[in-house]
From TrEMBL, chains A, B:
Domain Aminotransferase class I/classII large: 28-380
Protein's recorded name: Aminotransferase
Lineage summary: Bacteria, Bacillati, Actinomycetota, Actinomycetes, Kitasatosporales
InterPro entries for this protein: Aminotransferase_I/II_large, AspAT/PAT-like, NHTrfase_class1_PyrdxlP-BS, PyrdxlP-dep_Trfase, PyrdxlP-dep_Trfase_major, PyrdxlP-dep_Trfase_small
Keyword field: Aminotransferase, Pyridoxal phosphate, Transferase
Length: 422, 422
């Protein structure tokens, strides 16, 4: 007799809807809240979706053979050799993550801070999330020693953690855990007999090619499930497609059977025309590789420019090395913020920036961070333009910061932060 | 600390995959097991999906304004005036049904027999389904008096049923509950304070226009959620789109808030290009109405022809009035089946027909029916052809039973049933 879980709307999607409402009301809002990548669809993908419009069979729950083979190849090119049978597709990596939590069962360890939906999904499965802080400057992975302590304590209290979720590279901080931290996380997971669910949807958005994110699947291959999708590297959020890579071996096979059983009862299969286009994308022809690289360059330029505005104001910020997200901490400005604005936490700071300056951010509390902290998350994915023409220009620009609409947004952020901290 | 639920693969989707495997192995199988409607995509839908391929924003969790307005109009034309704000869209009506069970919470009453996924979904939410038999010849709705007794007994035992799921018209039986039964069901739900979740995905597949299925939303509008989709009337199963219509009033608003919150955390939104095409379909231009009518005529001709084969053999069968499903009961043949074949239940009967005759059916047990009964479900949706040309010809044919591939399938069924019962 489960009580309906107290689940609130995803903070990032709620921010998208609020932004749309305010714009319809004629307000000029700078959105740094959305998780959406506002870039145009690659023409080759558009054509393939149209050409696959006659695909109306449910098809295999786990995804078409073509899609699974292509996704296996994608991982193979990232040092994770994969058999197509290890791949399960879903309408986004979000439903796959939810179904994985159901498939593993038990309680779930998540990093603090972490993406808005992990904790909510854990609650929807009837579990209580156990939030474990990340090491400084290495978001996305619970500190391995703190993880050991938290799991031991939870087990002593009769709880049953069976799974740890990590985000590599990280949302909300745009940082990447070091290879050593990932190795120690994997060792802890093995010692504690935890399944590792590694959300790697930002792995193609690491700015420096020498800086590649290190997957826990390289360190604990027998127990790590990797998820990814095309929402970030190819800006296909609204198309809804994701894939999970199960471990090779007995645990992987057991999880795979459970996962496809659960998927078959919740969503049947993934839209067949989208699978067709995604299979082409996961095979990574030159157009796709070029698009992802252009997006990465654009994120790097704009995210770092926005980061500079925050650090210039006096906020603390770990260097952004991936994604289009940053996570400034206004702690050094605590006194002036309290004195001048009555702002004492991230929620109030977010409210002030929205109401007074029309700049939408998300407070750290949305990511499970300490609500008293003065941390906020900024995302640059919606600064690239409002029209397809502007967005394409941003993607193509050798110097995107010189485009008038991006410059205007940066100036607006500049002015607001300057006024805030003056 | 939830245990991973013991969820098996959806029986209908498993049947699809088994069929594909056997065909790849060169076997010639007649599939009466799938829930898929094997018909080609309407050209207008194909075009609109392709034209909407540039839609890559997440968009509102509940669905685009255009889609919600169109779905509201669709229901308005079916005696259910609807405000677009009452509509929530999802990647299939299946995930909407799952999220609704989560949103309502508590235990769930389902009809016996009923669609394979209701019970599995209830278990995934942590509830135990309470199966209540349907009245004879009126599938899809628990007998209202038996519902009252079952809920009273469950509550006395400390359980907490809050919701009853109905299927109008019915899968697996192809029957339609009478207006009086629906009214009594609605009264019982009101007296027991149950939410009614009415799965009406087959409402456009009622053969006789004078025979329209009566929605519980007409009898208990304050507490009935209606779901539907385009998988059956427009054969778009593989596109994955469904809509829910929430009640007007306070309960509807409360459920709507919960439902969109849950949707935002499980699946974000419904593929945007599919929403665009679906908005056109829900507006029901003449092409769409014509396609649905042609599908209905084809289902009627073939389902009734298959039904005749079963009744000629001596099986009992309530007249099929909607869908492309039928649910014969071989009870009158219990003795010969046991003597000649050692068959004593629906599972064994299904196995015999598959292994000896290459005819795929599903046993009543897959629908939660008494496993000792000799009932099976047959679906005709995969008899219309293997190629797009064949399927289009079946849709267009004034006399589809004369098409060679349909005639061959019917003869094969004839021969198998004849041999079985001889």
């Amino acid at each position: 007799m489960p009580e309906p879980p107290a689940v609130t709307m995803s903070a990032t999607l709620a921010a998208d809807e609020a932004l749309a409402r305010r714009r319809r009301a004629g307000e000029h809002v700078v959105s740094l809240a959305s998780g959406e990548i506002g870039l145009p669809v690659l023409p080759g993908l558009r054509e393939r979706l149209g050409a696959a419009a006659d695909r109306n069979a449910y098809g295999p729950v786990a995804g078409s053979a073509g899609l699974r083979t292509a996704a296996a190849g994608y991982w193979g090119r990232r040092s994770l050799p994969t058999d197509p049978d290890q791949v399960v597709c879903g309408p986004g990596s979000k439903p796959l993550l939810f179904a994985l939590l159901l498939a593993v069962g038990g309680d779930v360890v998540i990093p603090a801070p972490s993406w808005v939906s992990y904790a909510a999904q854990a609650r929807l499965t009837g579990a209580e999330p156990l939030a474990v802080p990340t090491p400084p400057g290495e978001g996305g992975v619970p500190d391995p020693d703190a993880l050991r302590a938290a799991v031991a304590k939870a087990r002593a209290a009769g709880r049953d953690p069976r799974c740890v979720v990590v985000t590599v590279p990280d949302n909300p901080t745009g940082t990447i855990p070091s290879r050593g931290t990932v190795r120690r996380l994997a060792e802890a997971a093995r010692d504690l007999d935890l399944v590792v669910v590694s959300d790697e949807i930002y792995t193609d958005l690491v700015f420096d090619p020498a800086d590649r994110a290190h997957s826990p699947a390289l360190e604990a291959p027998e127990r790590t499930v990797v998820t990814t999708g095309l929402s970030k590297n190819l800006a296909l959020g609204g198309w809804r497609i994701g894939v999970a890579r199960l471990p090779d071996g007995p645990l992987g096979r057991k999880l795979g059977t459970r996962l496809t059983g659960i998927a078959s009862q919740i969503w049947s299969s993934t839209p067949a025309p989208v699978q067709e286009a995604a299979a082409w994308a996961f095979a990574e022809p030159p157009e796709v590789v070029g698009y992802a690289a252009a997006g990465r360059r654009l994120h790097q330029a704009v995210a770092r420019a926005v980061a500079r505005r925050f650090t210039d104001t006096g906020a603390l910020l770990a260097p952004v090395r991936a994604t289009c997200y940053l996570y400034p901490d206004f702690e050094p400005l605590r006194e002036p913020l309290a004195d001048k604005w009555g702002v004492r936490d991230g929620d109030a700071l977010t409210e002030l920036l929205a109401d007074r300056y029309g700049i939408g951010l998300l407070p750290g509390s949305a990511f499970g961070d300490d609500p008293n902290a003065l941390r906020v998350r900024a995302a640059t994915g919606r600064l690239y333009g409002e029209t397809r023409t502007e967005r394409q220009a941003a993607l193509d620009a050798p110097e995107p910061l010189r485009l008038p609409w991006i410059r205007a947004a940066l100036e607006r952020i500049d002015a607001a932060l300057g006024d805030l901290a003056r």
